[in-house]
């Protein structure tokens, strides 16, 4: 199994992209100061193009093939995250209910924290029950930036279509 790794720059800092030659296996926040490197596989190039379009506000749904390695519970949670519409949020409780585990709010939080593919599997769209921002691998400022970016894109799109 190949393990291709590259780094792309973004408005929220450098992102590490990993793929196995067929599917994306990880997108993580890279340490500050990490230099960009050319995507070295077709999957990485597609992911980089789609991330660029996402940050430009022209892509609201990713189509990169994903390989989500985790427990059955984690995989169910991550699939549920893919169903959260762009520009919207869901609480941990709503996600727990969506995967038929209404009492598993804490477990949802823990599995959300283990998401290997940030942004594309939108764990940033999960918030606290009262609407407050809670932990995020990239930090709360980046989580807030991503949510505001998506809301602004939706608002812009709505105003263009009216």
Q: Mind sketching the topology for me?
A:
Elements (H helix, E strand, L loop, with lengths): L3 E5 L6 E5 L4 E6 L12 H15 L15 H10 L8 E2 H7 L6 H9 L12 E2 L12 H22 L1
Parallel strand pairs: 4-5
Antiparallel strand pairs: 1-2, 2-3
Helix pairs in contact: 3-4
Low confidence ranges: none
What is Rg?
16 Å
Number of domains: 2
Query: Count of helical segments?
Result: 5
Mean pLDDT: 91
Instruction: Tell me the strand order in the biggest sheet.
Output: 1-2-3
The CATH topology of the largest domain is given as: Arc Repressor Mutant, subunit A
**Could you give a short account of the major beta sheet?**
3 strands, antiparallel
Percent helix range? 25-40%
Q: What is the CATH C level class of the largest domain, in words?
A: Mainly Alpha
**Topology as H/E string?**
EEEHHEHHEH
CATH architecture tag of the largest domain:
Orthogonal Bundle
| C-alpha termini separation | 49 Å
Specify the oligomeric state. single chain
Which of globular, elongated, flat, extended, rod-shaped describes the shape?
A: globular
Strand residue percentage: 5-15%
The computed structural class is alpha+beta
């Amino acid at each position: 199994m190949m393990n291709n790794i590259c780094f792309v720059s973004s408005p929220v800092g450098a992102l590490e992209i990993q793929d196995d030659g067929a599917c994306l296996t990880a997108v993580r926040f890279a340490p500050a100061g990490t230099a960009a490197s050319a995507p070295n596989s077709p999957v990485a190039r597609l992911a980089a193009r789609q991330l660029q379009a996402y940050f430009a506000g022209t892509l609201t749904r990713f189509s990169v093939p994903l390989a989500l390695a985790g427990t059955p519970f984690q995989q169910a949670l991550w699939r549920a995250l893919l169903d959260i519409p762009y520009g919207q949020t869901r609480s941990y409780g709503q996600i727990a209910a969506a995967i038929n585990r209404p009492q598993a709010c804490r477990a949802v939080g823990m599995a959300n924290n283990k998401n290997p593919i940030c942004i594309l599997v939108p764990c940033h769209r999960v918030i606290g029950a009262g609407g407050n921002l809670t932990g995020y691998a990239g930090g709360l400022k980046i989580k807030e930036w991503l949510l505001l970016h998506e809301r602004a894109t939706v608002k812009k799109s709505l105003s263009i279509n009216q």
